[in-house]
Amino acid sequence: MDRRRFIQLAAATGAAALPLPGFIRSGFAAERVDIGAVYSSTGPFASAAVLANRGSKLAVDTYGKAGGAALNYVLLDDQGDPGKAVRKVQEAIEQQKIRHFIGATISSMALAISKEVHKAGGVYTNQGGADEITGPDCNRATFRWPVATYGAIEQTVRPVIELNPGAKRWYTITGQYVFGEALLRNTKAVLAEKGLEHAGNSYHSLAEKEFSGYITAAIAQKPDVLCILNFGNQTADVIRQAVSFGAKRNMKIVVPWSTGLDQFQALGSNVIEGVYFGLQYWHEVDTPGNRRLRQLVKEKLNETPTYLVAVGYAIVQMLLEGMNKANSTDPARIIAAMEGMTYEGITGDEMIRAGDHQVIKDYYLAIGKARSAMKDGENFADIISSGKSFLPLDKTGCKMA
């Protein structure tokens, strides 16, 4: 008797409630679902992507199953190139039939991947910061964990202005890519609202490593605040070079988007002391989800979670929580389950806003501490404020299809 005929007869006779024979049960064994992780294993962003990949792989290994399926982690190396990222995703969709994706090292990659996954009827969670991801370029397939650049600037630039009422002139150094432009646009909006002067801006490319010329240009304008609007190793390079030029003696330094602990460890307390940093995540925040993450990372990786490890974990967690809520691996069902979903994330209770697929969570402002004030070898900074800042849905530009 074939399987379909057996089930039809079982339904007709009430036998479906009885234990199924072994050959029938095997047909219902948990399927395997591939999770396509898009990270720059090589290229200019590899140092950051390796850490995020570590966090994502840890999440998949820890959950093991979701939506009734065994999880299989598939790493796709985009080599730091948006074009290659798209080709890798296209190949994974066409050749491996992957429909569940996470990752992307920079916002331009996330935006490009988002379109491909949406076209294929998949689901995609990412850590891009550009407002467009949950704004004009939003789509049903795509979900974003980090606070967007709008919220990052609101929770850093605005409180720094309040803390330093005498600081009237701001100078910015900006990465000339989608993410940097978004940070700059939001910074200029806050400065204009507050009646403060934007004394100038220096753009740099993704490939730039030497920033002395930009810093010299900034110092020549005699600003009260130097605001650094870029990402990853370039942020650390600008901070290091600015401090070596004596910038801290004459101005405040603000870094609205920092990777936190790993950057602080690389720079050292002498460099970061007195510098303001915006943080998506800080390992000392006391929430149940973060306590679990710290314990997990300690046990499995023998380290303290940095932002990059944490965000890699977080974007997988939200996807797998959606799969479990849907009790399915079908992308359409997962998307429906994730819209409006609240779950216990690493920053506390995190909620996915249905209208634009943005996770609503806290963003933190920290200030670097002197070595003598550190409680332990990783207590580089104190959180001095936190909060949630998100554009109202009707202001995001998101028209969810």
Automatic annotation (TrEMBL):
Domain of life: Bacteria
The entry's keywords: Amino-acid transport, Signal, Transport
All residue ranges annotated as the Leucine-binding protein domain in the record: 33-366
Family annotation (Pfam families): Peripla_BP_6
SUPFAM superfamilies named in the record: Periplasmic binding protein-like I (SSF53822)
GO annotation terms (biological process): amino acid transport
NCBIfam families in UniProt: TAT_signal_seq (TIGR01409)
Family to which this protein belongs: Belongs to the leucine-binding protein family.
Record protein name field: Amino acid/amide ABC transporter substrate-binding protein (HAAT family)
Source organism of the structure: Stella humosa
